[in-house]
Amino acid sequence: MNNRLDLIGLKDAARNRWPGILQAAGVDPKHLRNKHGACPVCGGKDRFRFTDKDGRGCYVCNKCRPDGGDGFHLLAAFRSCSFIEAARFVSDYLGGAAVTATAPSPEELARRKEREDAEQKRAWLNNRAVNLSTWRQAHPVMPGSPVGLYLRNRGLSLAEYPQALRFHPCLPYWDRGEDGKPIKLGDFCGMVAAVQAPDGALVAVHKTYLTGAGRKIDAPSPKKMSKPSGPLAGAACRLFPAGEKLAICEGIETGLAVHLGSGLPVWAGLNAFGLSQMVLPPEARQVFIYADHDENGTGQNAAKTLADRLTQEGRSVRILLPGKPGWDWLDVWNARASNDPQNEKDAA
């Protein structure tokens, strides 16, 4: 019996049925409402949104899947299984639909790839214009600006601000209503951060929406990433120029805390996925990974993935982990007055 999966046919059969498929796998329906909320894979509060674009079960998690994925990716991540195992679950749910493989011809595969590549390039080109405009409209950070106030409110008093961070006076904030349609909630000032590809090109802009008093706005997700103008894998927010020694972390504020505490130059991956995929310059020979101590292990696993790759590249690597579950290095920085030796530990 031929039990190979026809993945193309299976994707077609699963279209518009993903809420039921995911609920059958154990995903709570509260995660499938096209509203910001906790991620069913890595937790949090508002990092996840199930969009179900084109009925394909699409989703985005700002921490574990910022590039987004479809229902198969979400199912595999939720069940901690391979893509093929997730596909077989879907096939079983659909009553064995699309099990027999009918492989497309090489010519058809080439045509599909050409169409997908052309569509992706058009989207990246449009996004590039928007991202460059956002960045050019922003200004250097000043101590009394909302960004300077925000960083000070987070316990980060800097003599000089990284050039990778700017103050934007008017950022539109979009969310989705109950019907799933986009709605504009207003215009806000904010901190914008340049996200650079390995070649140095601006590939995205990270936005933190702020009040004039330097507080995060009361919104479903006060931090957002722009649409990318190229692959995000390998990209980073280069807070300080890399040298022979370089510190790596997830968050921007965490990176500033690491710099204040260690004096090291820091690059931020912005999330666990970004940290694990970061591409470093050749001059960075000694790397210090300041990992988040996530209770579900997401931050630690991302640090281990990066460390293994960098070690294979011939670099010296250390993973440093806060001593308390749920803490990152900004928490450690702000608790430094307690002189608690349990606040940090070396994991490598």
Automatic annotation (TrEMBL):
Domain annotation DNA primase/helicase Gp4 N-terminal Bacteriophage T7-like: ranges: 34-72
GO cellular component: DNA-directed RNA polymerase complex; primosome complex
SMART domains reported in the protein's UniProt record: Prim_Zn_Ribbon
Protein's name in the database: Putative DNA primase/helicase
UniProt xrefs under InterPro entries: DNA_primase_Znf_CHC2, DUF7146, Phage_T7_Gp4_N, TOPRIM_DnaG/twinkle, TOPRIM_dom
Pfam family name, one: Toprim_3
KW Hydrolase (keyword) present: yes
The organism's place on the tree of life at top rank: Bacteria
Transmembrane segments: none
GO biological process, one term: DNA replication, synthesis of primer
Keywords, in A-Z order: ATP-binding, DNA replication, DNA-directed RNA polymerase, Helicase, Hydrolase, Nucleotide-binding, Nucleotidyltransferase, Primosome, Transcription, Transferase
Entry's Gene Ontology molecular function annotations: DNA binding; helicase activity; nucleotidyltransferase activity; zinc ion binding
CDD domains in UniProt: TOPRIM_primases
